[in-house]
Write a structure and sequence with these properties.
heterodimer, A: 7-stranded mixed beta sheet, 11 strands, B: about 110 residues, mainly beta, 5-stranded antiparallel beta sheet
Chain lengths: ~110, ~110
Amino acid sequence: DAGITQSPRHKVTETGTPVTLRCHQTENHRYMYWYRQDPGHGLRLIHYSYGVKDTDKGEVSDGYSVSRSKTEDFLLTLESATSSQTSVYFCATRLGITGSRDFGPGTRLTVT
Amino acid sequence: KNEVEQSPQNLTAQEGEFITINCSYSVGISALHWLQQHPGGGIVSLFMLSSGKKKHGRLIATINIQEKHSSLHITASHPRDSAVYICALNRDDKIIFGKGTRLHILP
């Protein structure tokens, strides 16, 4: 267990408002990921980070930005939330060598 | 065509039954993961395997690299095994997730 927490765990927001989700890990894992999970789809990668200030886009990055100023924190920002971004968001980490991911508990975001 | 396909999509069985969930893929991989997600819950890694077979308690995972196929077996199934089981592929430092198999074990 990589000691991953996500905040908030649930959020309801209105279309057009900015939203920031936080992922915090205590295991000093180098790699961190943001995924979204929607019915009928597998988990889809939004953005990932391979170190402090080093980030890259995933397959569904439009409308999202990320920042990683410290090893332990990875922030996901929706600059102007849309209803299509209603989803469950999972953060994950990876130490480096094994390739297995440790997942956070998820954040359920509803955009009305 | 999806790179990873799971079958069945949904499975309901009686407590005690032997369960098999299949995962077929079409790309080269370095490893395959099986994950478990309980309703409303987080995601837990069950296995990561690149060849052969692994066992943990009542769970067994196998992989055939040549046939690009993996199976997850549950022996003596129990209602607490009810969850979504997800197959995921390690490919080029990324993970490709299947859509999951929803398993419901009836008492």
